[in-house]
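Batch job 17 of 40 flagged for manual review because the log was empty.
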Amino acid sequence: MKGKNVAKAAGIVAGLGGLALILLSRKAGAAPPPEPPPEGMAKLYGRVTDSSTGQGIAGVRVTTTGAITETDSSGDYATIDIPPGSWGVRFEKDGYETKELTVSIEEGNNELNMQLVSTAAPPGVANFMVSIINLPSEANMWGCAFQDPTTGEYYQPTNRPIMGSHLFGASESAELSSPVSSGILSISAFSQASAMEVTQIVNYQINMSVTNNGSYVFDFSTGKIV
């Protein structure tokens, strides 16, 4: 009976000396081969891991045409018995990028391991957006920064990366990235007559907590987040 990767390696080593060598032939951390399918059929199996941590991911939906299975607590999966041939395979789980590919499956066990990329921000990092309403009539620009109250460091908008050029029009939004989720939003309105002539009209300091991918609107008429 034919098979890819682990199945083939096991068959070769078995003739050289037995079970201990078969186990050594498998990659560390690999999924154990399932029970072989009946003659003339094939089976896909493997382990799904996080691309950053290398840890197995539980609950990943593994879909082949007409069949769905999920990874176990170790990130391992095995499909039902399927005919050999070309198959589309899809790996998906909330919080990770979906992977789709087409594989050629031979008779027997076929090993297919997969790494998924997390879509979540790293721990402690908050990427968020700030926009404004009711800019004072004497102002035509505004700006903001988010301060870590522990270190005193300010994090400027990432969509205005050049220092001194981080001012926005009333309809524009500021994108910020901070390693802390609780801090002080410093937000100001400015009158900009020219690139070299900028006057601050008003400044507010707001203690707030933010969430990753959050969106916040500041009302200059009340001095509050609405």
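Reviewer: the log was empty due to a logging misconfiguration, but the result itself is present. Residues 57 and 99 are 14 Å apart (CA to CA). Unflagging and moving on to job 18.
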